[in-house]
Amino acid sequence: MFYFTDAPTLLRDLVTLNAHPVAWSTIAIMTATTLVFGGFMREQVCIYMCPWPRIQAAMMDESTLTVAYRDWRGEERGKIHKGELTRSDGGTKGDCIDCMACVNVCPMGIDIRDGQQLECITCALCIDACDEVMARIGKPRGLIDYMALSDETVERAGGRARPIISHILRPRTLVYFALWSGFGVGLLVLLLMRSPFDLNVTPVRNPQFVTMSDGSIRNAYEIRLRNKDGSDQPFAITATDGAGQPIPGAELVLEGHSDNTLTVPADATQMQRIYLTAPAGSALAQQGRTDIDLWVEGQGQGIRTSVGTVFHGKGM
Ligand code: SF4
Ligand code: SF4
């Protein structure tokens, strides 16, 4: 929540119990969803709500390293009696002593010995748990390990698996790396290029224009100016015609201000009503509808931006 608003102000408002109802209701909703998701639903969130396993599954192929159980080494599982040889000692019984350590540590509650499953988040806790068990009973580590499907077939036939680096560096992974890096660089460029402020303009339609006592025509606009900078910023507001040229005789006034400068606090959005008045008899005042631009210039930043809008005249 502190990320989306002015954090020191919100913290002070919360401590003094003066926070806006929206802040309290957001905290209540986030607390409730965290309790439900983290306290009750737990791994069901990962299995049924998270899109990541689907994305991961779509990106995998037979050379992808994943967590797997060497069933040709571990089966037939069961308790080992003293002096009994297992497969790693040249015997026929499997190395898995069916201690359930790998299942007990699994945050997803699955048994990796049943084969690869969509629920697996490849956290590798089962690898560590099984390696500890293997160390205790004097068997080689790796009954559960990172493995690729292509290596599984080779190992099952008695061959040696390919080196891990050859699974990591291959055309498919390099293309993925290039694509994700491209997205990352693109986002970084957008972040660095983002405008330090935003401007929205809404013409006041009721009434569309007001005829002043001297015959001039006045239009009103509601502008919303968002300052994305971390410090208060003064913004100069001006108007031009659709070609970017000053409008002869037109006067722009900010309601409640003595000049055309609006100072917006850091990381805040400010609403402001402005009035644009065209002199009596001018083209702007006579025409029914004229395209104009409202400009905002960050005075400390030297950046300008404009929003197109319309000026309503008498239409004669
Ligand atoms: S890698 Fe993690 S999620 Fe997957 S089976 Fe092992 S402990 Fe469970
Ligand atoms: S931790 Fe290893 S030995 Fe124990 S049940 Fe799992 S695979 Fe078998």
Element layout with pairings:
Elements: H1 7-15, H2 21-41, H3 43-49, H4 52-59, E1 66-69, H5 71-74, H6 101-105, H7 125-136, E2 144-147, H8 149-156, H9 164-168, H10 171-193, E3 197-203, E4 210-211, E5 217-227, E6 233-241, E7 251-254, E8 261-264, E9 268-278, H11 283-286, E10 289-298, E11 303-312
The structure holds iron/sulfur cluster (SF4) (2 copies).
Notes on the structure:
This protein is α+β, with helices and mostly antiparallel strands. It folds into four domains: 7-41, no CATH class; 58-162, no CATH class; 163-194; 197-312, Immunoglobulins (Immunoglobulin-like, Sandwich), CATH 2.60.40. Helix content is 34%, strand content 24%. It has eleven helices and eleven strands. Strands 3, 4, 5, 7 and 9 form a five-stranded antiparallel beta sheet that branches. It has a four-stranded antiparallel beta sheet with strand order 8-6-10-11, with no helix packed on it. The chain has a two-stranded antiparallel ribbon with strand order 1-2. The mean pLDDT is 90. Residues 74, 77, 96-102, 113, 129-130, 133, 143-144 line the site of one iron/sulfur cluster.
